[in-house]
Amino acid sequence: MASRDLAESLLPGGGGGGASPSASHDEYEERAYDSDDKVSISISDSDEDDDGAAPSRPPFSWRKLWRFTGPGFLMCIAFLDPGNLEGDLQAGAAAGYQLLWLLLWSTVMGALVQLLSARLGVATGKHLAELCREEYPPWATRALWAMTELALVGADIQEVIGSAIAIKILSGGTVPLWGGVVITAFDWIADASSLRYQWFWLLLQGSDLCLGFFWFLLLLVLDSDLEYASRGASVLLADWMKLRSEIVVVCVLCLFSPETVLLVQSMAHGGSMLHAAECSRAVGQLWLQSFRFSSMCFIFLFLENYGVRKLEAFFGVLIATMAISFAVMFGETKPSGKELLIGLVVPKLSSKTIKQAVGIVGCIIMPHNVFLHSALVQSRKIDTNKKSRVQEAVYYYNIESILALIVSFFINICVTTVFAKGFYGTQQADNIGLENAGQYLQEKYGTAFFPILYIWAIGLLASGQSSTITGTYAGQFVMGGFLNLRLKKWLRALITRSFAIIPTMIVALFFDTEDPTMDVLNEALNVLQSIQIPFALIPLITLVSKEQVMGSFVVGPITKVISWIVTVFLMLINGYLILSFYITDIRGALLRSSLCVVLAVYVAFIIYLIVRNTSLYSRLCSSTSKSS
Fold first, then answer.
1. Residue 250: what pLDDT?
2. What is the spatial distance between Cα 442 and Cα 462, in angstroms, rounded to a whole number?
3. Is the pLDDT assigned to residue 77 strictly greater than 60?
């Protein structure tokens, strides 16, 4: 009975008045959004009464476009993750303005893929992972799920490491890389839907806030006697904690407030590390840190429960933060407008910049983002039985997605041109990356009123936080769609978050941001994500080309041909990445032989996905069945 109660508590609706045991399987069928969570897009009674028989689309409405705005901006965050920012800055530093045209056309290719993903989700009412489960046999479905999870883990490692680097910069180096990973890891709470767990976390963060406020008031009372109070307390603390390991444990427990770590270290050394004024600043900042993290946790906990629109607005703020931060950097560094326009219009590609060019193309299209967008568009109430409603939704989603990608392109342009202006042709161009970009910017443009180092860190933190949260959402849709898991949201979020956070923590513990091995790791992660692209694009193009799936919204022959050309081009880019990584970074005959076997299986699976829906495959299957 106990195990049954536990299982029921993990199911949607289980525990506390859930559905009866006789409920149908469809009631628990995995879905992107429940009907109660969807946003109504009707702006008048005529919208509700329309039977969808009108042959033409209704006239354009700004109000209706606003109702559809949101999913595209969550989708465009994958174009702005730390991996993309690193590709932008390295392209600017190594190639100057020469690769801006490639950034433009890569964004156009990414837009085509994302528009197809949105079209699939709207026309079918299901997202890509669900449709793959219905389309392919179980072994192929599980293989696709495993490949997509690998891509998610690779992307999440880069995103969390990017956030951790930003936190380390903003804390003045007080928070180590692994500490930033711990802080970033707690954004999965945003996906929790159980109020019991939300109130538990809110209680913990609220107590931290009250404790910080208590110390702040104590500071005001003690004033000049703070130095004596801290030294007196340090004597007792040093006598009580004799072991260094115990001090480390205290520092870990106080990780959410870096200034607390500084105070504990000071008291453990007899108060000799800090003077009274420094202690005053540290204790004052303790309250600010507690307030900041408590507020973030509170926002993450309740945004989704308050509605999809609130969550989309929160991500809009993060995108605006990135846009403002990098626009300020653009204004301070003043790149050449003439060179910018020439770089966008005139294609240039030299042998020295091929690596950066491949990096730009490979970073733009993210496999998990294809699955994510097809699920996000289902957040609106659309009657898929009415052709005019589906046609209208596709129309507005196309506009909204293009606008979002224009914003992301502007941000990427700002980053690329800033580093093109500052570091192209310099000695730092070959060594620059996320971990040292802020320091290089500070050394070159550090005379402004607000340090450019912190402007860069704020933009990087917004990029990392937004992309890790959307990565968590994508992980839930991917796992739920492929495996049809009937689990509560908070449990799915915890499982999918663990897939990425555990390897990320290992990376953070064994690598330092200044370690040159980190560059090799980033390159390996880029290769890992790039080789998964066919397992998102091939099923997508296959499904949008099938009339049995799309009905009257099946794509035309021209769109189909262009989509396959883009897919083949990206697969060639991936082949170059794999070959380059194989030649430069893979050592040892045994390792190379093993990799060749893996590549053979990889290519065979891609060929299977391509030919599965062709007449040749049908004839082979029929001949095999007849012979048996």
1. 35
2. 19
3. yes
Query: pLDDT for 481-522, tens place per residue?
Result: 888 876 666 566 666 666 666 666 666 666 555 555 566 666
Reply yes or no on whether the pLDDT at 10 is more than 60. Answer: no
Q: Is 214 exposed, middle or buried (0-12, 13-18, 19+ CB in 10 A)?
A: exposed
**Tokens 């300020």 sit on residue:** 328
Residue (of 566, 623, 158) closest to 365 by Cα position:
566
User: Measured at the alpha carbon of residue 318, what is the angle toward residues 316 and 320, in degrees to the nearest 5?
Assistant: 70
Please tell me whether residue 366 adopts helix, strand or coil conformation: coil
For tokens 């709470």, name the residue. 189
Name the residue with higher pLDDT: 468 or 377.
377
- Who has greater pLDDT, 334 or 24? 334
Read off the tokens for 508: 């953070």
Helix (H, G, I), strand (E, B) or coil at 380: strand
Domains observed in the chain: 59-203+296-516 (1.10.4160.10)
Rounded CA gap, 618 and 611, in Å?
9
Share of the chain above pLDDT 70, in %: 60
pLDDT(561) > 70: yes
* Cβ atoms within 10 Å, residue 467: 30
SS (H, E, C) 604-620: HHHHHHHHCCCHHHHHH
Rg for the chain, CA atoms, rounded: 26
Would you say 189 and 301 are in contact if contact means Cβ atoms under 8 Å apart? yes
The tokens for 431 are 């060594």
In 3D, which of 593, 437, 455, 589 has the Cα closest to residue 522?
Answer: 437
**Up-side HSE of residue 496: CA atoms within 13 Å toward CB?**
37
Three-state secondary-structure class, residue 155: helix
Burial-class residue 116 by CB neighbours within 10 Å (0-12, 13-18, 19+): buried
Nearest to 507 by CA among 178, 185, 187, 186: 178
Closest CA to 433 of 460, 413, 471, 401: 460
Beta carbons of 14 and 488 less than 8 angstroms apart = yes
pLDDT at residue 312 tops 70: yes
The mean pLDDT value of the chain amounts to 72
Residues 435, 100: contact at Cβ < 8 Å? no
Distances 573 to 101, 189, 546, 550 between C-alpha atoms, Å = 17, 37, 27, 30
Give the confidence band of 201 by pLDDT, cuts at 50, 70, 90. Answer: very low
Q: What are phi and psi of 425, to 5 degrees?
A: 85, 5
Question: Using CA atoms, how far apart are residues 80 and 66, in angstroms rounded to an integer?
Answer: 22
Tokens, residue 390: 């589906």
Nearest to 405 by CA among 365, 457, 374: 365
Contact 80, 409 (CB under 8 A): no
How far apart are the C-alpha atoms of 319 and 75, rounded to whole Å?
A: 11
Where helices occur in 269-384 by DSSP H, the ranges are 276-302, 308-333, 337-345, 354-364, 367-376
Nearest to 358 by CA among 521, 575, 98, 157: 575
> Looking up tokens 């928070």, which residue turns up?
175
**DSSP string of 537-576, one letter each residue:** HHHHHHHHT-HHHHGGGPPPHHHHHHHHHHHHHHHHHHHH
Q: How far apart are CA 110 and CA 104, in angstroms?
A: 10
**For 191, how many CA atoms within 13 A lie in the half-sphere containing its CB?**
27
- In the numeric block, the tokens 């990608």 are attached to 405
Q: Write out the E strands in 428-560.
A: none
